[in-house]
Design brief:
The protein has 189 residues and is mainly β. 0% of the residues lie in helices and 35% in strands. The chain has no helices and eleven strands. It has strands spanning 47-52, 57-62, 67-72, 78-83, 88-94, 98-103, 108-113, 118-123, 133-138, 143-148, 153-158. The protein has a four-stranded antiparallel beta sheet with strand order 1-2-3-4, with no helix packed on it. Strands 5-6-7-8 form a four-stranded antiparallel beta sheet, with no helix packed on it. A three-stranded antiparallel beta sheet has the order 9-10-11, with no helix packed on it. A hairpin with a 4-residue loop joins strand 2 (57-62) and strand 3. It is globular and about 55 Å long. 26% of the residues are buried.
């Protein structure tokens, strides 16, 4: 963590203080918020995606730990983990309660309910040709778009039930797609 451009609490660009949970620790770089698993049992191995939920918690796709780690968003204290099929790569929230998790080695997308602490398969393994899901986004058109890295496609699925569209949205990309970002131009002139 570093102080942002408009910070009045610290010099912009300088490391923020270590959270209490790791103060006094050795081998921790300035600004560290969540430590490495090398130094802390509940630390991180291989971060692929991190985002804050509306619940104030930090959710981190830890590929090598085969789970999504959950930390307190203010203190950095470890809270829990969400087990995944294998190798979580991408995370995306929808609303207050649904977290979507792309599992790279299992070729599927999971949906986790924060309210019920339950995981279900949203997009079945290899559905629609899915191979190594990376980034994804809701399109605002009733579809859920997924970057299928190893098939070099952008695939789309019904956002209501994860059912695959009959053909790729974009096919035969020159490179492995990694991320997708939906840009809303509805107000553009």
């Amino acid at each position: 963590r570093f102080f942002g451009p408009g910070s009045t609490a610290g010099l912009p660009g300088s490391p923020m203080p270590l959270p209490d949970s790791i103060k006094g620790a050795k081998m921790v770089s300035p600004g560290t918020f969540i430590p490495s698993a090398e130094h802390f049992a509940d630390g991180l191995n291989m971060v692929r995606k991190a985002l804050f939920g509306r619940d104030g918690r930090l959710y981190v796709a830890d590929r090598d730990a085969d789970c999504v780690m959950i930390y307190d968003g203010k203190s950095g204290r470890y809270l829990s983990r969400i087990a995944t099929a294998s190798k979580p790569i991408h995370l995306l929230f929808r609303g207050h309660d649904e977290l979507y998790i792309g599992c790279g080695d299992a070729d599927l997308v999971l949906k986790y309910s924060l309210q019920h602490a339950t995981t279900s398969v949203f997009i079945a393994a290899k559905a629609g040709g899915l191979k190594a899901p990376a980034g994804f986004a809701f399109g605002g058109d009733g579809f859920f778009y997924v970057a299928s890295r190893e098939s070099r496609q952008i695939l789309r699925y019904q956002e209501a039930d994860g059912r695959a569209d009959s053909r790729p949205f974009i096919d035969k990309l020159k490179d492995n797609p990694e991320f997708i970002l939906r840009v809303d131009n509805s107000g553009a002139k």
